[in-house]
Input
Amino acid sequence: MNRNDGSSIEAVRLWVLRLFVMTRKELLQLGRDVPLLLFLLYSFSLSVYISGAGIAMQLNNASLLVHDGDHSESSRELIHRFHEPYFRFDGEVGDPKEGLTRLDQGTAMVLLDIPPRFRESIQGKEPVTVQLQVDTTNAPQGLSAAAYAARIVGGFSFDLALSRLGAALGDDMRMPVVDSAHRVWFNQDQDETWFQSISHILRMITLFAFLLPAAALVREKEHGTVEQLLVSPVTPLQIMLSKVLAMTLVILAATALATATVLKPVFGVPIKGSAPLFFLLTAFYSFTVAGLGLFAATVTKNQAQVGMVALLVISPMLLLSGITTPFEAMPPWVQTLMALSPLRYYIDITYGILLKGSGLELLWDSILAMVLLGGTLFGLGLWRFRRQFQ
Amino acid sequence: MNLRRVTAVATKEWKETVRDRLFLLMSFLLPPLWMVVFGYGLVLDVEHVPFAVLDRDQSSLSRDYLYRFMESRYFDYRGSVYDERDIDRLLGDTAIRMAIVVPERFAEQLMAGSSVTVQTLLDGTFPLHADTLKGYVIAINRAFTQELLTDFLARTRGLVPEEARRFVEPVSLETRYLYNQEVRSTWSMVPALIMFALMVASPLLTALGVVREKETGSIYNIYSATVSKTEFLIGKLVPYFVISMVNVAVLWAIAVWFFGVPFKGSFTAFFLASLLFILCSTGIGLLISLLVRTQMAALIITIIIAMVPTILFSGLLVPVSSLSLGAQVQAHLFPAMYYTDVVRGSFLKGLGLETMWTDLFALAGFAVGLRLVAYGLFTKRPKA
Amino acid sequence: MQQYDRPSIRSVLSPQPSDTIVNVSGFVKRYKKDVAVDGVDLEIRKGEIYGLIGPDGSGKSSLMKAIVGVLTYEGGSIDVFGTRVDSERAAEQIKPKIGFLPQGLGLNLYPELSVEENIDFFAHLRLVPDEDLAERKARLLAMTRLERFRDRPMKNLSGGMKQKLGLICALIHEPDLAVLDEPTTGVDPVSRRDFWSILAELLEEKGMTALISTAYMDEAERFHRLSFFSGGKVLASGVPAEIRALVPGSIVTCEAHPQLTAIARLKTRFRQVESLGSLLRVFIDTTDESEAQSQIEALLGDLIPSSFRVEEAGLEDVFVALRLQKSESKEVSDVIADSATVHDRDGLAIEAEGLIRDFGSFRAVDHVSFRVKQGEVFGLLGANGAGKTTLIKMLNGILSPTGGAGLVAGVDMRMATGSIKERIGYMSQAFSLYLDLTVEENIRLFAGIYGLDKRSMSQRFEWIVTMAGLSGYESSLTDSLPMGVRQRLALGCALVHSPRVLFLDEPTSGVDPIGRRHFWEILTRLAREGNVAILITTHYMSEAEHCDNLALMYAGRIVAEGSPEAMKRQVEEVGGRLVEVVVDQPRRALMHLLQAGFHGTALFGTTLHVFCRDPLRDKARACEGLEGRGVRVISVKERPLSLEDVFVYRVMALERAEPSTKQEAAA
Output
């Protein structure tokens, strides 16, 4: 009985030891690849900063040209309402045609055309129409610019109407108006750096978690080292798991680096929820994506092929899971397809923990989905890997 | 420069590429696939935003008001709650992005001619969302108010509705959408996806080229032969250049015939720019190939370098002009931006060489610069 | 036939100094801080075959690369064709006249391209005109017997064929200087002969000069002049005779029992003592036969030697002696460690029962059966592509058999659990350790995989470093190691867990003679004292002599098996007695003897080995014939068969019988 216990403890010790030496091997190999390491460092520090600080999906400084046919106090007041950060006044043109040329060249995005006798019409209580020409080669941005312009002109018109009504009805006369009061949660100042820097980290985690283990496994196949391993008592599970473990460690370290050097000190991202939970789930996520990467590695023979498969899998993940664009707006078929993307769940988890302070009670469904997906992918990879050498 | 040697290198490279079936298949399959999937699937509009309502008034007017949100394609009604704490939970769980709280006595006050404040609670994790949503809410509120006012004026001042409306809306805006009159997301996305495909796939095609030969040792054939550095670098490039050019043609056809995006501009400019751009993107791959030691590093660095700036700094999603200064600098240091300009200009704006020569010039600069650096980095007589 | 009139050994002629093609003086190459080559002088003259010989990591490859202008160097000067190779620009000038074949079997070729496409690529790269190309290609393909495989992808060629293709590719532009780095490493004896005769013919025909390095000492006899490299310096240079004269001595072989005592006694005086089966082989620093015999007898004392024989020492022995003179030899540690604990002494370690493996329509292994007991060294011989590697891979569970069974310790390795896998060690033919880990990290990795604890790990580490001669390399990246050192490391890693069964697939490819001797000493002791079963493949027939039992594979089948002695007896029964003929024009003599019906005749270095059914009559017939064709016969004497004779005889006989089969098998 005792001997049995002893040998099973020994077996577990050996199993763990093997996993440990294999994991250490992966880390050593990665440590030898200096260019890759430097690049990893860059990706999780400076690169996060540049994306965080630099990218604004909100309409930002849309270049505005004005053709003012009136040059009155009223027209100036209207123009004045087109201000930063949404619009950047880029000068007046004498002729609408000149403005259109600038739009053609892409040096301006919006042309506001105020008709002659603008002030006169307003004062004469004549309805007047202001024209706006928008470059919609980038449709969402064009729409966005048009929406802001409508908001501004609408506001101008509304204020005018109210003041006129006020004048007509006397100050004591009250009017039925629905006002808007907004409360923005989780990011009161709508600081876009929070969103962009976090989404950049998600992007990097995804890319590295997929590519590192996939490339490492293909390299073992290419160099034939995998045969040496298969003859040894190391099991396919240990071979794959060690890669995942090593890469997960690296990614956790990199994420910690990004959090400690950029997210918190530079952008002041609040970590409202539990940091350990965030890192734990990041580890789960890396594991999941690594499983996907390893699966890709088992169906390919060389680095070029695994690269192509990576592009096939990763680009939809990055573009359609909702870190670059809002997920709700995606067509239903994309949403269905993306149920298979672990990133989709990880996005909710990350923003939930970091910005909303959510805990397990709210995130359990996303976590469950991610873990299930990860387990399945890893299992599939393992199955393929085993089968390949049978 | 000897054409036979270039041909020799190119032929060898071509045969090796062609015999890697999976690789070849992917290099022709991926770009059209991306175009179709992202052309249809990558929707940037803020639409179908899930929201909930807390109607404390429960009047027919409040229902009429809320109905406007439920009807809008921008919003997606997810239900009513009766307690503000439920809103906290739903927002925290990302079940909704917005909640509208209609105050008590909403109808009563408005009918009495006084103003009422409706509160909207927004999820700020996606600031773009939050901001756009604010705009939508304001627009709906304003329209609702205008109707109320028109009605009110008609009731209290006896104005005909038409007159009242004019009174309420003295200045209106007429917007004309240029280049893409129906403002189709696909129209603006699809041409830019040509850029995406070339920028993401082409570098990978070339990236492993030189490192692979270094890893296996066949690079010594080149070192010890009389083939010059230029001949070798050009020869290596030819097959990938050909694949990429074929892809340009295929993508162009899909854009025009499948998505129906108009091509209004000049073929010369488009062709020239594509040519230069492929030289740039393959040049990036080549450069990485020369800088790293292992195929693994080449692969990872290439994919990330190709993908990340392409998504962020190329003008694909965000116009370069709305980036911050630092990001704009980075965008200008990356050839994709110029090509995006040319592609959209050629397709949607109908521009020609005369307006886009600066972009072409920049692309040419990158193509030459990258080649020069590669030439400098490549040595046939290394230290080890 | 004009070309044959020129004597192929021209070492006696001393070309004019103006004929100097390569002049190296004070050459120094450093890799970061490591000095690879430290002050080497060398002069290669027009038309000669110049050899570089030396242990792994002695700087041969660095020097060759620097000469062809694909590696920078830190000191000294290199002039090639009168051009000082000191810049990329200068290097470009000499490249048209140079053909370079880098080290590594087929590594510089393109696996996906066919034989013809590979040749075309090199030719086009060198701007060979189309008509010349067609003509040369036809001739070279015919010469190398590769013409039937024009369209076969290079990756499907056997090692010997790859190397011949590599040679064609390196010489397709008919360079004035061919630089070939270990062109025959990993190539079987028959293909090696093929390779050399093709090379010699080409060089002679076109008046090419060649610089060649090799790990096979018998090949060194073919060099006109050679340099011995060691530790980045040249130990000696000159024509083979001069080199041999540096360490005058002879080889004594004899039998004495008990062998271990005999060895111990002989070792008190002589440093080169080996056991070859039941025979002892000793290098004695005298050329006088009776003197040698008396020295040996004196040492052996009461052990009376039998079948006593004295021979001229070969270059390999001289090489080893030279190395031993210059440096303290690293004595192999006596630790065979815990493998000495004897388990199942007479158990069956490996058992193959009618193993078959098909790749598509091609049968790589065809009904192979054999058994290896614990404590037995079993050698698997055969040409490249005969199916040895496939067989080993089936036995250790990497490949599944199409039919039959392969058992290790009674278990099918494919079903084996960890505990059985712990008992086997495997060293694959293609180097398969981690190039980006250091020597120490590689060893520790495998020690960990096999579950060694800290204490036994460090013990084992020490042992491997000493055993494999890796001291000084511990923290070097494996990538930077010369091929031979890598092989030794791979062996160390395969032995890290003291396995009970060892599979070694060409473990000594590219390892220098001293390394190989150490290696075999260890293997023999593992088997004798540690009772380890060893299945080994090798292309060094001198090594095969160490095996207890051998099997010769041909086209996937075992065509002969038995102990080395039995194998030799079998050949003698079929082929007759072996006669060694020394002549002044060996290749011409070979042609004649083959035509004259001496089918077993083969070239060994510069001498001919002829099988004679009736020695007296045949000797006379052969000599007459040769003299009649203007070949001067220097000496003719009978000698005992070596395993190399057995191999060459067997394989050539089989190839003659079915010329197409070998080529099919090679795929």
